[in-house]
Amino acid sequence: MKPCIVWQTDFSLDWPFVATMKGVCKQVDASLECVDSTHTIEKFNVLEASQQLNYVEPFWPKGTVFVSVVDPGVGTPRKASVALLKDGNYVVTPDNGTLTHMYYNIGIEAIREIDETKNRYQGTESVSVFHGRDLFAYTAAKLASGQITFEEVGESYSLDDIVLLDYEYLKADVKNEDIQGIVSNVSDPFGSIVFNVLTEDFNRVGYHEGDYIHVVLENEQGVYFDETVPYAKSFGFVDIGQPVIFNSSSNYISIGLNQGSFKDVYQVKAGLQWKVQFHKVD
């Protein structure tokens, strides 16, 4: 059985570009299965692309080919790449920071730059703005169908040359109960937000479900949230509209509202400038 190709982009489904990429795959091998992860990543948000891969990739079987196209540098000298992960999966993507979570959390075995002279959809040589179709989809399809090996993608290059985002986006330095971190993701459609604090670190320094935690959320413009919040298994342990701290599906600490959008109510965004402080209340 041939591996699936799993797609994520910032294209949306409001125009035909995703279907165009899949059409290229079907021309290469009509039997290939294409599965959508998401096409609603915030425009040009490479960090979110990296995080979305982190959420999805571990749940797919060895050999799966992921295509991630969030590519604000399309047509520039940034590398078009295929990464072989240490768990046996592949990521076909611009090397622009999208591989950050895979690098640290899964591990990258090797990486190759796509050879455009061999792995480019024929007839698109004069186009510089749609590598999602012309390079990434075409190469992913050839790889998934077995028409090329990983070694035939193109020349390998050093893992040290992979473009990585600031490590602070991935993991807070948690030493004790007084934790300082950042808002790392706000893409949850239900409006919960995710911090860069791993739940295992949160629990290791003494936080347990049932605790009450003082949370301060601020940026350079001021404080957006300053309240004591329960740490619970899920939303239903607080009243409707009330905040709760919980372990997200990605095993990072999150905060949300029961049947409400924390992101919208408090106008929170992601980034290094969005700081959070946790302090246990006795």
From TrEMBL:
Q: Known InterPro entries for this protein?
A: SAM_HAT_C (IPR046470), SAM_HAT_N (IPR046469), SAM_OH_AdoTrfase (IPR002747), SAM_OH_AdoTrfase_C_sf (IPR023227), SAM_OH_AdoTrfase_N_sf (IPR023228)
Alphabetized, the UniProt keywords read: S-adenosyl-L-methionine
Gene3D superfamilies for this protein: Bacterial fluorinating enzyme like, S-adenosyl-l-methionine hydroxide adenosyltransferase, N-terminal
- Residues forming the S-adenosyl-l-methionine hydroxide adenosyltransferase N-terminal domain are 5-154
Q: Where is the S-adenosyl-l-methionine hydroxide adenosyltransferase C-terminal domain?
A: 188-274
- Of which family is this protein a member? Belongs to the SAM hydrolase / SAM-dependent halogenase family.
Q: What is this protein called?
A: DNA-directed RNA polymerase subunit delta
Source organism per UniProt: Massilimicrobiota timonensis
